[in-house]
Amino acid sequence: MDVDLRQLRAFLAVADELHFGRAAERLRIAQPALSQQIRRTERDLGVDLFVRTSRSVALTAAGRVLQGRARSLLDQAGRDLDEVVRVGRGEAGRLDVGFVVSALPLGPIERVQAFRQRYPLVRVELTEGYSSTLLARIVRGELDLAVLRDPDPDPAVRFLPFRTERFVAAVPHGHRLAGRTAIRGSELVDDPFVFFPAVAGAVATARNLAPVVADGRRPEIVQEATTWATVLHLVGAGLGVTIAPESATLAAPDTVVLLPLQDDPHRSELVWAVRADDDREILRNFIVATET
């Protein structure tokens, strides 16, 4: 059987009107063309749908069954095609979005929520992680986009600016510089450092340590941790000092003293990362919605 949607619409018009002339007017086609469509539908199905006389048109038993089914089929087809159009326009579907925890104070989740409100038919799934692992998942196609901090460059990924922020020094109470209102990063070059492991990324490591590097000397990292919260608690316990993006220190414990850096041009950059070849409308809609 090869009955298309146009044939079903023609059948329904006749079934509702029980009059070929009125049905043809409703469909805005000529009556002979409508009669041909109905005969073709009956031929395709192998059953009679109408009992025709010179004075009346009536549905057969098969016609009555098809009347209910055809309306349901057309309604479902309309919903399915509408979904196709919405997906094509980026108004429906699914987005898998990653984020680094240290970015949360700067509002990426609020931007995701703004997108959800504008496009309620898009399902957004959130995943937290480190910049390096989120970047790898974008390249593999496991994430659609992510907000990353100071990621390493990758030719398969394009980066869109999100936020830029200063670095601050974090030292324990009792540190020789804890009473100052501001310091130069180079004053910490001889202090033991608490920091992320190298797998966090070369760019992130270089940018965080850049304020401290002096005359080619780099600080010694004596303790590693995988979250800024852990790093700052270890600093507060006296294991060392660190340099951190300002937003990453908002939840620093009371055992930590935060010091602005004098005349420091270095900045931490947060970016949206998407695959370079991904030009779907749903991503464009997300970027536009989160920029406003």
How would you concisely characterize the structure shown here?
The protein is of the alpha/beta class and 292 residues long. It has nine helices and eleven strands.
What does this structure look like?
This is LysR substrate-binding domain-containing protein. Keywords: DNA-binding, Transcription, Transcription regulation. The chain has 292 residues and is of the alpha/beta class. The chain is 38% helix and 23% strand. Strands 3, 4, 5, 6, 9, 10 and 11 form a seven-stranded mixed sheet that branches. The protein has a two-stranded antiparallel sheet with strand order 1-2. The longest helix has 28 residues, at 61-88. The chain is rod-shaped, with a radius of gyration of 33 Å.
Report the mean per-residue pLDDT as an integer. Answer: 90
The number of helical segments is: 9
Helix share bin: 25-40%
What share of the residues does DSSP label as strand, in percent? 15-25%
User: How far is it from the N-terminal to the C-terminal residue, by CA?
Assistant: 51 Å
The total beta strand count reads 11
The largest pleated sheet is described as:
7 strands, mixed
Alpha-carbon Rg, integer: 33 Å
Helix and strand composition category: alpha/beta
Low-confidence stretches: none
Order of secondary-structure elements: HHHEEHEHEHEEEHEHEEEH
Q: Regarding quaternary structure, how should these chains be classified?
A: single chain
Based on Cα principal axes, name the global outline: rod-shaped
